[in-house]
Amino acid sequence: MAPFNLEPITRRGLAGFYRLLGASLIARLITDWHAGIYRVHTGELFPWRHLPIVPLYPPALLVLEWLLLGVSGVALLLLVRVRVALYVGLLAAAMGLSQRYSNQGALALIVLLCCVLQPTIPDDLDVRGQYPHLDLVRYQLLIVYVFSALNKLRAGFTTGQALATLLALPLNVAQAMSYGVVAVELLVPLLLVTRKQRLAWVGVVLLHLSFSVLMPGLIPFGLLMAALATLWLPPLPRMAR
Amino acid sequence: LLVLNLSYCVGALFTEGLPGWKMFESVEVFSYRLLDAHGRSIDVRDYLPRDAQLIDRQQLRRVAQYIREREADRGPFRFEIDGAVQP
């Protein structure tokens, strides 16, 4: 049962969502490679953010994980064999998360898990566009932003000290930016539930574009959040009745 | 699933160390030094993936421990955080 009425999912929105999801998986592969994750698995680097549940696997398995990630990403980007790509992406995301925790990895796993509950391609969509499993994906955007903002407020992020340290900024600049980040994280869900989806989409893209410029390692997460925002987009005005 | 998801996020909000959409909300400010037996400084970042951000002392201690084990032949080491020698 939905907490509130959502607009139907459009073919265009679903296609855009899959393409950006695919782009996010490819970006994850590139950033992992660039960050030197392979060297973590050869034992040269510290096993960064490795949760000690599943042992760190050998480089050959990392290559397999990246291969699955790349295949899934390209297929989703091109909208080819989407259903298979969702399952392959889910497997790659689960493998990745077992080796290094990241918000992007966790979000990709949740999103792909929801998608495979009822793998749906854009051509499957009917006019009513009611797909509870895709609604779960849409709600995930609200959950990420609201809880990210609450965590930040609770931890004192708005003092600006965190961004000042991370980005080597003057404290007053960092504090203004911190308030801006929290404001956008709270504003986007509000815009979405009040059906100002296009404005919310612009907010999501601008927020993550800023993060990505300052910290390029966050590009995959930004693309994934943009994918979720795309799923909220209503039909184009000329298509709406 | 939605209720389960929300319940977990509320739990994570009030539980230190539990992942739950926590994104650089808190960054500790600290200085550190890791020196080998000859007094040569070791840059901890050389042993981390490129995008890794050291944002708390606990993480730093784990990385320093990894380096001390990996580079055991360069020991004994002297490891300080904020001027205090670490065990």
- Residue ranges of chain A: pLDDT <50 for 5 or more in a row? none
Structural class of chain B: alpha+beta
Computed CA radius of gyration of chain B, to the nearest angstrom: 17 Å
Structural class category of chain A: mainly alpha
Largest beta-sheet characterization of chain B: 3 strands, antiparallel
Instruction: Work out the strand percent of chain A.
Output: under 5%
Global shape of chain B = elongated
Largest interface: A-B, 40 and 29 residues
Overall, the morphology of chain A is flat
Main beta sheet of chain A, described? Answer: none
Order of helices and strands of chain A: HHHHHHHHHH
Number of strands of chain B: 3
Mean pLDDT score of chain B, rounded? 88
End-to-end distance of chain A = 26 Å
How is this structure best described in words?
The complex is a heterodimer of chains A (241) and B (87). Chain A is built from 10 helices and no strands. Chain A has 241 residues and is mainly α. The two termini of chain A are 26 Å apart. Chain B is built from 2 helices and 3 strands, in the order H-E-H-E-E. At the A-B interface, helix 1, helix 2, helix 5, helix 6 and helix 7 of A face helix 1 and helix 2 of B.
